[in-house]
Amino acid sequence: MRRPTAALGGMILGSLLVVTSACQTKPEARPVQPEAELKYKQAVLDQDVAVTDQLCRNQCLLHVNQMYASLNHADPKKIKETMREMQSKHGHIISLNWIPVKTGSGTPGSSPSAGAPAAPGGTTVPSGPGAGAAGSSGNAGVPGASGASSAPSGAGTSPSASSGEIVSGKLSKELAKSAQPYIEEAKKAASQGKTYQSPNFTVADKPYFVLNVPAPDKKSSVVAVVRQHILQEVSNHQRKNLRLQSFHSDKSRWKIESVDTDTLRSKRVTHPDDHEGTSHYERHDVVVQFNRPPSEAELSRIRTQIGATKVKLIGNTYIITARSLEAKQLMDYFRKRQDVRFAEPHYIYETNDLSRGTKPLSWFFDWWPGSRSDNSGRTRSGAGEQAAEQPDVIPNDVLFNKYQWNLPITNTLRGWNFNKGTQDVKVAIVDTGADVNHEDLKGQLIEGYNVLDPTAQPMDDVGHGTHVAGIIGAQVNNGLGVAGMTWYNKIMPVKALDSSGVGSTYAVAQGIIWATDHGAKVINLSLGNYASSDFLHDAIKYAYDRDVVLIAASGNDNTERPGYPAAYPEVFAVAATDSSNGRASFSNYGDYIDVAAPGVSIASTYPQNQYAALSGTSMACPHVTALAALLRSANPSLKNTEVMELMRQTATDIGDKGRDTSFGYGLINVDKAVEAALGRGPVQAGLPGTKPAPVAP
Known about the structure:
By secondary structure, this protein is of the alpha/beta class. The strands form six sheets. It has a seven-stranded parallel β-sheet, sandwiched between helices. Strands 1, 2, 3, 4, 5 and 6 form a six-stranded antiparallel β-sheet that branches. The radius of gyration is 26 Å and the shape is globular. Belongs to the peptidase S8 family. This is S8 family serine peptidase. It is found in: Secreted. Keywords: Hydrolase, Protease, Secreted, Serine protease.
């Protein structure tokens, strides 16, 4: 949120947010040179892919162990039916081979990684990056490696099966040939009752690995061949959001013009550093608001004069598409009229969710280890320096202990002693939609809206919205995947961004208005651009005036230039931090930043019952959204301005003393904020000091 006295700049919305980094420099003095920034961003991308690889392997181990629990001396028909059912829910598991283990058999084979922690059922999981079979590399087979060509995995041969084995699923000939050596190693491990994981290998540039999981009684074992297409998806996704490739390499769907935000002059974007201050809009569109609605006759004359092919109306604002005139010509036409309030480009909003962290992946596995015996909840940050009156609430979600550093560092676990959310406070996510069938989001999602196709579900075809949804409200204590920050708040997915992670001003504004009209009390906006839009701002003010808390990501270009919607005075702006409470080095900063939250390699839900680690202020934003939902759940009488002020005043100061441009008021502190909402602690709801509602300049 920019202070009312500050000038408003411009920026286009994007569907993903970027993570912030600790930098105290002035806007003219960038912390790193462009080439170094490229290297940092590539390192974070590699880190996210590597962590996602480990998440996938852990989940596959869990799924097979859960399958064992449902078998219990089942007959062959039941075993095969159970394996097929698991594959139907987890399409990345290409084949399953149930192997009876003969008593006393033993063939030399691979042993599990030394020191790996036990998973349910007595199996082991990797203890660090690249863990698996001896000599394996967690990054082997990451997209880009070469491999043999492959036929569709649905057709081909079953893995070679011996007498008594039960096989579900088929491999293509090329895949079967490449997987065979690893399958043999897996069977050797099975004969010894040991877990096995192969390194990644590629077939037709697609990464795979082979897994063996012995039954708890060691009398049988399951060998699985797993396709890790999620690694390619995360890599491609983050290349866009980290701006490692120019804006929208595929311009076939959108007639896009990249321009300097201040001048609207065309700008060639050939380097990620060029994205700073760059906006994008649809070339032949204009957004117009009249002082009074034009008559049908007047609108018809306008259409004829400019050669309009399409006219959309939302509220009292028109989006007009011309056959040949471009945006600047259309704006000149309308700005000459006396009855026009504003005429502006039809801006495009894009995803913004990849960080440029500098820490090696190893920090991830050292942070808040699951072997820790005490529940003191002390963290490495100032947020946990004071002794806790209440122990941390530790969830049983299997990926929590090892991967969710973001929850203890924000004192979320301790805050759960006081409030875990309520179904009455609805949270809307205006994004790419959400995977409405994800097993870790079951019961957490309510009816949403697809702005792009109102007849369809708001199904996520990118992954970003599903990831944001999981950070806020993945099921807690269900023994699966990750834990969300709220236990009971319902999530309303609103799809305003398309399959490329891009959406228009119209779609985003419509999504905000729809969510407001359907009862959302908090709205998450993990998207942004550098152009201020009157059209979008009107939608923001519509929600704000109806007591909605709007939370937005600051952006991922490591610039002090204000991004929108985060810099609007009605919006709460979020920067991103890493596990050491430093500003994520790619995160935007400035005097409009309200608070900071974790945004580097955040583990969360991903489409098709998978999990991924993503970075960006897009990931930081939903942490603050979840906190706002917890505060409104703890004290329903709080106004939106009071919720925002409580989050500021209870934040942990982690930068320069007092408010600063990198972290705003500091890192969110869930425990302290929820206590304050309940009328406890030194900061309390309703005390003098709450800022008045901002006034747009």
